[in-house]
Specification:
single chain, alpha+beta, D-Maltodextrin-Binding Protein, domain 2, 3 domains, globular
Length: about 800
């Protein structure tokens, strides 16, 4: 169709019944005059054919039989906002005809192999994998004004996938998923690659069930981006706090780094956000609005867009100054349709992960490490459309105190902690970071672990502390929280450090006298959530403090306020936040499990029960029921999240367990471990109650304190100096076991989709293959020269591992 929406057709460009694909892209000058300076041919494995970027639409030319039709598709860079181009219809049509002439005169070599193969024979829907690319840095959706940037060649990826999946690839590009489905993608989107928040927003609107599978690393090796707060270079503002009273121009709600994360960053900086917020669709229009505003104004733009705006001449270089940025949010994510069978999903994932083997393909994708898997235990369910926005908006959903409850994702533990909401200088790593015990989903899973550990430890910084070190580390954004004890052993200390440098930001201390076995230091890992930090000491002192400055917002004492008795080894469990509720386990007769309001500390509900155990609670959907799963001294149980009603009780056959390892929920089932009852896997009935007889069990993995990790359909744990790998799908039977002199009864586990990182009690790291048929130690690393003890659970954020030993806390560079 032309610019007025009229169909254009050229007869007999292809033999009847076949499709040929030649794709051309106009090179656009991004000067403020918006002039078009030429066109060139660009090959692309795109069955929808010829694509042009104009002011309002992206045109797709379909070659099929006797007719060739120019279809509208979504505006290139409409959301990323790096194009702001005006074009006259006559010139656009002229450009189309010029490109067609070039194609007929000798551009046959530019026909995508995948499209050629598809044209040679009829196929079924199963034989053709429809891939929709929404990456704003993809070549057809961007410009080539900045050399080596925003020119990702997804055609080469399509060829790679075609060879490894043994199927034809139908590749289409679009900024809007709905338009792709109704146009270029032919109603199918088996795989979608794009900015996570945008894809999830669009999928929710289209009521599609998509599953996040992997993420693409950038040239810097990260999988995230940020929103940049920019002001005119002559503005008075130098930092985020200087934006008080400024007009702030955000992006649309689906663009997380420009909207939700930006609002969170302003709140974290102590600035109010007026409602409704002012938004502009594109980065360019937001920047222009800020520059031309009669009153002081700032715009929020995507971190990748500044180089494009300046490189294309849309904004003069140096005309904008960055005064702050948001916490990192997830960037390019690969989603697969829920209808794709698990074995096929795994093949797709394996093909994506293999990209790192080809240096030229990495260069074409402008990626340092290719794709990294989104680690989830095998069998996790799809994200329901109604919950899509929460799932893809970690910062905003957690800022709002909402659970990322993914509908029918049976047994999957929801995200339970938030990132630091965007300090001025940003942070290290991904959007959610490691905000509490065992990470953002309390499952000890991370997006990526390196292929090998460094030969020698490289510490970005080290900070000496008092010790002893028992509590785990929490890190999010540019904040790291670590527990300590004063030199006289009379006060609890909680210290907030900068993740980049180790510099202290604030400290909270309060009297906490007493004597406990294994020392008196806090055991519970701090929890960062929605600009607050929840701190629990061994003697039952619970504080909620402001993440920005450590100011105490409210406090409780579990013994005094709930009538509880102090456990023998003190309070060890780490609290959890979900749906605006802080779940705690005082262990009092009338208040064994309690839900507090996150903001005020007010009691929302309390449930009677037994004395407190030591394991941390989790929240999971089991048997269709969203529930808190926790231990008391003698049993495990489930509690309704909204009311506190106890749903079930499980008393194991062997008594006197300490109940220290954290429960693990996945695939609609619950894994429990203890020293007297071994490792057991339980199912649930349709009412959310546990089936008392375990589906599978393995007695030899019987840890008294170390929590295993589940990944790649396996469970990894340590007991009595032996490392176990159990097959979940085969009744918890061992895949392999291994002994190592560095292993004892305790170790901390962190896993990606294909590797397991083990931190031993004596301060060594072991990196183990998670997928092979036999034990394979990939590498090991001694962290310290002197003998030390590492009980504290490490935190991993990006390529940094934060480790606490008896001497202090250290930031290790993994890559």
């Amino acid at each position: 169709m032309d610019m007025e929406g009229h169909a254009l057709s050229w007869p007999h460009l292809a033999p009847c019944g076949q499709e040929q694909v030649v794709v051309f892209r106009k090179i656009i000058s991004f000067q403020r005059t918006h002039s078009i300076i030429g066109c060139c041919a660009v090959p692309c494995c795109l069955h929808t054919g010829l694509r042009f970027c104009t002011k309002d639409v992206t045109m797709c030319l379909i070659f099929s039989g006797a007719n060739t039709t120019l279809r509208s598709a979504p505006t290139a860079m409409e959301r990323s906002g790096t194009k702001n181009v005006e074009s006259q219809p006559a010139q656009s049509i002229k450009t189309v005809l010029m490109c067609l002439l070039l194609s007929l005169l000798g551009q046959a070599a530019d026909v995508s192999p995948a499209a050629q193969s598809q044209a040679q024979q009829p196929t079924t829907a199963i034989e053709v994998l429809s891939v929709v690319v929404m990456d704003p840095l993809a070549r057809p959706l961007s410009c080539d004004c900045v050399k080596g940037f925003a020119q990702r060649d997804y055609e080469k990826l399509a060829r790679w996938l075609q060879q490894r999946l043994d199927c034809q690839i139908r590749l289409s590009f679009s900024e809007a998923l709905g338009r792709a489905l109704r146009g270029p993608a032919g109603g199918k989107a088996h795989v979608v690659i794009g900015k996570r928040s945008v894809v999830e927003f669009d999928a929710a609107a289209e009521r599609l069930k998509l599953r996040p599978l992997a993420m693409l690393t950038g040239k810097d090796g990260t999988t995230t981006l940020t929103g940049l707060f920019v002001v005119p270079s002559n503005a008075a503002a130098k930092t985020m706090k200087d934006l008080k009273g400024y007009r702030i121009i955000f992006g649309p709600p689906e663009v997380e780094e420009r909207h939700g994360a930006a609002i969170a960053a302003l709140k974290a900086a102590g600035l109010s956000v007026s409602q409704p917020v002012e938004t502009e669709e594109s980065c360019a229009s937001a920047a222009f609005s800020a520059m031309e505003s009669p009153k002081p104004a700032a715009a929020v733009i995507s971190s990748y867009s500044k180089a494009l705006l300046e490189g294309c001449g849309t904004i003069e270089k140096g005309a904008l100054r960055v005064v702050g940025q948001t916490a990192p949010v997830p960037f390019i994510t690969v989603f697969v349709d829920e209808s794709i069978p698990p074995e096929r999903r795994q093949r797709i994932l394996d093909a994506l992960l293999s990209v790192r083997e080809d240096a030229k393909l990495l260069e074409a994708l402008e990626s340092e490490r290719g794709f990294v898997a989104i680690a989830k235990p095998d069998g996790a369910g799809a994200v329901e459309p109604s919950e899509m926005r929460l799932a893809g908006s970690a910062v905003q959903s957690l800022l709002d105190g909402k659970l990322a409850d993914h509908g029918d994702r049976a047994g999957e533990t929801p995200v339970v902690g938030s990132a630091a909401q965007g300090a001025e200088n940003g942070g290290v790593g991904d959007a959610v970071g490691w905000p509490g015990w065992r990470g953002p989903a309390r499952d000890a899973l991370c997006p990526h672990l390196p292929d090998r550990l460094p030969e020698k430890p490289r510490f970005a910084w080290s900070k000496r502390l008092n010790g002893p070190a028992l509590a785990g580390i929490a890190a999010a954004g540019d904040r790291l929280i670590v527990a300590d004890r004063d030199p006289l052993d009379q006060q609890d200390l909680f210290v907030c450090l900068k993740t980049a440098t180790g510099e202290q930001i604030w400290q909270v201390r309060y009297p906490a006298p007493g004597i406990l076995d294994y020392g008196n230091s806090p055991r519970a890992t701090p929890l960062i959530h929605a600009g607050k930090v929840y701190l629990l000491g061994a003697f039952g002192d619970l504080h909620c403090v402001d993440l920005s400055d450590g100011k105490v917002l409210w406090r409780k004492n579990l013994l005094r306020d709930f009538g509880a008795e102090l456990p023998k080894w003190g309070y060890c469990w780490s609290p959890i936040v979900v749906d605006g509720k802080l779940i705690i386990l005082p262990g009092a007769r009338e208040a064994s499990v309690v839900a507090l309001d996150c903001d005020s500390g007010k009691t929302l509900w309390r449930s009677p029960g037994g004395p407190a155990a030591y394991a941390s609670p989790i929240v999971a959907r089991l048997g269709g029921q969203l529930q808190v799963v926790a231990y008391d001294q003698t049993s495990a149980g489930g509690w309704d999240l909204q009311t506190g009603r106890r749903l079930w009780t499980l008393v194991p056959p062997e008594k006197n367990d300490f109940n220290v390892p954290t429960p693990i929920a996945f695939d609609g089932k619950l894994l429990l471990c203890s020293e007297n009852n071994g490792t057991r896997l339980y199912c649930f009935d349709s009412q959310g109650a546990i089936v008392p007889k375990p589906e599978a069990s393995f007695d030899d993995l019987a840890p008294d304190s170390s929590t295993p990790v589940a990944t790649a359909g396996r469970v990894f744990g340590v007991c009595s100096g032996r490392l176990y790998c159990l097959d979940v799908g085969n009744g918890l039977q061992p895949v392999w076991t291994a002994e190592d002199q560095l292993l004892d009864n305790y170790a901390s586990f962190i896993a990606s989709a294909n590797r397991v990182l083990i931190t031993t009690q004596c301060g060594h790291l072991l990196l183990v293959d998670a997928t092979g048929p036999q034990y394979k130690l990939l590498s090991r690393l001694a962290l310290f020269d002197e003998q030390t003890e590492v009980i504290s659970h490490p935190a991993i954020v990006g390529n940094r591992l934060f480790v606490r030993d008896s001497a202090g806390v250290h930031c290790l560079l993994l890559e």
